[in-house]
């Protein structure tokens, strides 16, 4: 860190006397309470800037229209029923929680804290630009993927590395097999894939009001706790600022949403979560556990798309818009957006707490158990929903509605 105490400097900038809170909680909570001013600052900033972003999005018609008002499908795979909101809703909301993080990175770059900051800053800027263009012009999936790959490649070629990552049994995996210039194989290739997977896993859970944002708040807070335990300063601050920004934005995005994160928020949020996990390498296995729900949902949806549509390549799979996500299955079972939000963030919180509390062999046991239960649970849910749909179709075909039936009891 070039001799700079990053945490101390940031606490001085956002210093607020928190002594009254420290007296209410055990002494072991003090390291966490010290950071509350930073969290509150990001929350307040996002809370006040979100309506301004919404105003401009409405003014320039950067809006996500519901299915009934859409003039055409976005592509041949797009299903109108996946657009479940009822009113035209402004996009670009993700800028509200991305901007505090971006400003923080600029601050760190100005301090000259670490060369990795400039790489994260450049990659984030690329994703912000691509996200804004996508919200405005509905870019093809290939253009979005190019932006994601470019951002991930910049990170891979930067001083950020995944040469060695910890394993659930307290061992380490050496990924530095061959070095060619700035590229380390297979470490950098795995890093690129990890970033792309995280970006799209987070995007995939954004189909219901507040769902992506609520899950991300829990994920960031859990990363913050891990960062405190390992002393990873940048992880601590990035995760907390992002969580605070999301909290301020969630006030407007909570069901029924008044504004959406849009592609601007979805892509950058997944990217930042991927970076936070990478920067906390000493707990990378725990980071994967924290992201279990979105990762398993991504794997399940992609697999079902492949067997359903027989797509020839990954890009074609990513273009498909269907209703196979976990939140869609819960919608089909009659759950409201608020209940779906509560269910998913509860699952994320439970898995995350297990990840933080377990170590060594116990960590591996719970990791495998959670993956197994998640796959079995999702598979069972999909089978149940499909049977329910088929049953409803059979009942409607056996008893077709007639003009007279409207008045029968």
Tell me what the structure shows.
This protein is mainly α and 409 residues long. The protein has a domain at 6-285. 66% of the residues lie in helices and 5% in strands. It has helices at 6-13, 19-22, 30-33, 36-59, 95-111, 115-137, 141-156, 187-204, 211-230, 233-253, 262-279, 284-290, 292-309, 314-319, 326-332, 337-357, 360-398, and strands spanning 63-64, 89-90, 164-166, 172-174, 176-180, 183-186. A two-stranded antiparallel ribbon has the order 1-2. A two-stranded antiparallel sheet has the order 3-4. Strands 5-6 form a two-stranded antiparallel sheet. Helix 5 (95-111) runs antiparallel to helix 10 and helix 13 (292-309) packs across helix 17 (360-398). The radius of gyration is 22 Å and the shape is globular. Residues 402-409 have low confidence and may be disordered.
């Amino acid at each position: 860190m070039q001799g700079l105490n990053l945490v101390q400097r940031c606490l001085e900038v956002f210093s607020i006397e928190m002594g009254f809170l420290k007296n209410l909680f055990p002494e072991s909570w003090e390291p966490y309470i010290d950071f509350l001013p930073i969290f509150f600052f990001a929350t307040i900033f996002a809370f006040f800037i979100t309506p301004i972003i919404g105003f401009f999005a409405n003014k320039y018609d950067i809006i996500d229209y519901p299915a009934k008002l859409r003039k055409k499908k976005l592509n041949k795979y797009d299903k109108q029923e996946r657009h479940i909101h009822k009113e035209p809703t402004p996009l670009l909301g993700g800028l509200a929680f991305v901007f505090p993080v971006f400003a923080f990175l600029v601050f760190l770059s100005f301090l000259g804290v670490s060369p990795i900051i400039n790489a994260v800053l450049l990659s984030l800027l690329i994703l912000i630009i691509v996200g804004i263009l996508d919200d405005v012009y509905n870019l093809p999936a290939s253009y979005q993927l190019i932006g994601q790959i470019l951002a991930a490649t910049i990170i891979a070629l930067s001083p950020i590395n995944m040469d060695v990552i910890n394993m659930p049994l307290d061992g380490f995996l050496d990924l530095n097999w061959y070095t060619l210039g700035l590229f380390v194989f297979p470490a950098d290739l795995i890093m690129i894939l990890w970033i792309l997977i995280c970006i799209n896993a987070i995007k995939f859970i954004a189909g219901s009001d507040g769902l992506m944002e609520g899950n991300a708040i829990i994920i960031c807070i859990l990363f913050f706790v891990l960062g405190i335990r390992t002393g990873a300063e940048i992880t601590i601050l990035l995760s907390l600022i992002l969580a605070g920004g999301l909290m301020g934005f969630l006030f407007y995005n909570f069901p029924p949403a008044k504004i959406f994160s849009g592609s601007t928020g979805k892509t950058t949020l997944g990217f930042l979560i991927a970076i936070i996990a990478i920067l906390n390498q000493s707990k990378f296995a725990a980071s994967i556990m924290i992201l279990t729900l979105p990762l398993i949902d991504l794997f399940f949806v992609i697999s079902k798309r492949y067997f359903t549509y027989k797509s020839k390549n990954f890009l074609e799979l990513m273009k498909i818009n269907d209703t196979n996500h976990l939140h869609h299955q819960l919608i089909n079972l009659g759950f409201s957006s608020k209940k779906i939000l509560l269910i998913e963030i509860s699952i994320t919180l439970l898995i995350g707490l297990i990840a933080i509390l377990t170590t060594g062999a116990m960590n591996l046991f719970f990791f495998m158990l959670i993956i197994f239960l998640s796959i079995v649970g999702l598979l069972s849910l999909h089978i149940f929903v499909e049977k329910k749909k088929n049953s409803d179709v059979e009942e409607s075909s056996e008893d077709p509605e007639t003009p007279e039936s409207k008045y029968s009891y």
